[in-house]
Amino acid sequence: MRPFPRGARPLRCVVRYVRSAPGTYLWLAALFVTTIAMHHMSPEFEESFLRQRSTNIHELSTNPRRVLVASAFWTDGGSWLSYAVLYSVFHAQAERWLRTPRWLLVAFGTHVAATFISEGALLWAIRHGYAPQSAVNTLDVGVSYALAGVVAVFTYRIAVPYRYVYLLGVLAVYGPPLVGGRTFTDLGHFASVLIGLAFYPLTRGVGGAPWNPADGVRRTWAAARRRGRARRAARRGVGSPDRRPGSD
Description:
With about 250 residues, the protein is mainly alpha-helical. Helices cover about 70% and strands about 0% of the residues. The protein contains twelve helices and no strands. The chain has helices at about 10-20, 20-40, 45-50, 55-60, 65-70, 80-100, 100-125, 145-155, 160-180, 185-200, 200-205, 215-240. Helix 6 (about 80-100) packs across helix 7 (about 100-125), helix 7 (about 100-125) packs across helix 8 and helix 8 (about 145-155) runs parallel beside helix 10. The radius of gyration is 25 Å and the shape is elongated.
């Protein structure tokens, strides 16, 4: 008889994983609430509401601290489930590795620095006639800058030479949009990657040895071989009689 329901063990694993990264999942819970709130707003009200929490040039020049914090709790219209997956894969792992204070410093530091870089570039474009004056009120909310910074800093969690493969993948995701699109948000994302990489000193000596994907593959292969041997031994045991006929 099982002391717990069949799904209890996986559920305990999920609970332990969530508790190991409290900042990530509190943030994700806040995004869930704000996403639901956005679904109950009319399009006109939503745009006006988010613009007041946007890190655009106008809001940054009037109340920078308020919008820098507020903008990190609203999404740019993407699916909350996609954020849940990305937060679990990157933010939660980075928080477990760096611990909450250092992870928060990377995430929020990237969010702030990349915002000023991208909006500074937009301001330069406005002053030199490459962008309209109305761009000072451009809607700019979301958590993508912080995510890009954490994705980049996670490079240092991976052992060499796989670290370089991961880094090439990160650059392949964030580099082409900057070359092809050349918008201020593309610049902000690429700047976030560079800022995340610049947090290397914060990662030194943290979390033990870097993660080696090859070790995981070897452990999985060894476990599969052990299970295979156990199944073959069980089949041989079932096919063998306990006693010879006529031994009575």
